[in-house]
Task: structure prediction
Amino acid sequence: MSSVDLSIVVPTYCEADNIENLVRAIGKALAHVSFSHEILVVDDDSPDGIVGVVERLSEEFPVRILVPRDRPRDLSLSVMDGIQAAASERVLVMDADLSHPPDCIPAMYQALEADPGVFVLGSRYVESGSFDRDWSLWRFFNSHIATLLTRPLVNCRDPMSGFFAFHRTRIEGVRLNPIGYKIGLELMVRGRFTGVREIPIRFQDRAIGESKMNFTQQVYFLRHLRRLYTARFGSLGEFINYGLVGASGFIVDLVFYFLFQWLGLSHQWARALSFWPAVSWNWQLNRAATFGERKRRPRARQWMEFVLTSLLGFTLNWGVYVTLTGRYPFFDDYRLLALVAGIGVASVFNFVMSSLYVYNEKRL
Ligand SMILES: Nc1nc2c(ncn2[C@@H]2O[C@H](COP(=O)(O)OP(=O)(O)O)[C@@H](O)[C@H]2O)c(=O)[nH]1
Ligand SMILES: [Mg+2]
Result:
């Protein structure tokens, strides 16, 4: 048994200006607690001299730094390296930018002590938890949509949090497949935890340095979600993914359907034309996320095949619409129902066709 009670893993990239404040704040927060700790900084070879800073701090605090160089730069992989190298089986992960208040560490440790089977989460959304109101609308929106998308996977309020603690034995022998930012989500979904225990935190926006969250990370997140859905729900998961992408395409479809009519086209023409921006949108999203990891064919060929299968889907979609609205006064009164019926028929067809041909996966 290790003599350290809690290992605090801190992934860093370009955080030399934050790390000292963080280490001091942790030291202060844990000055009078009854458990011992170590801080393990996992840095992705930042060009900012953080190694020297940590070495200096290590004369005063129980802190060490790890710089894995045998893999690409990645937050999740850094956290995994830290978890593996931790001296204690009780591991807590937090950001370096002081977003996560060290004052909450004792409460998280207690929660883990009380029930070693749980995954303890520092949560922004439970009662009395909060976050800086300075968040841009974009970030706020993003965070909420992302949270919603994880609902079927985990039962907690703040699955996107990067502030968490757990017992390492709960993930031993579990096959993890992390990518990008949401390592907490990965652990929660795949680990053998008895539940999630949320501790309210006051999230602070970083004061120094820049966020490394970017568009690529968002795409990675979609891929990550796809993996988790598939792991949890099998091919139903893939269908759910496909459905979500389809739902967003439906909105594009509606916008153009009304736009073309507003521009003076007949509803049949509007229906015929709005199909294309919608289906192209879906194609792009599916390419990026749903089928993102399958073996890709050359883009031009893939697009040709896509257009061909879409032509069939389009014929069905438009055919159902025109037939229903043309033959049945009811559907002519409620054209949206005809539109939905057309999309429904074509979607099932498209899903089957794209799975089989366009994104052709060689399952060896
Ligand atoms: N080791 C490592 N740490 C990273 C990487 N990307 C981000 N981090 C760290 O992960 C934490 C959260 O990142 P941050 O940029 O603040 O993301 P945000 O809070 O979502 O804006 C910070 O401590 C970062 O330094 C990476 O690629 N490798
Ligand atoms: Mg941050």
Q: What stands out?
A: The longest strand covers residues 6-12. The chain has two domains: 6-232, 234-358. Residues 234-358 form one domain.
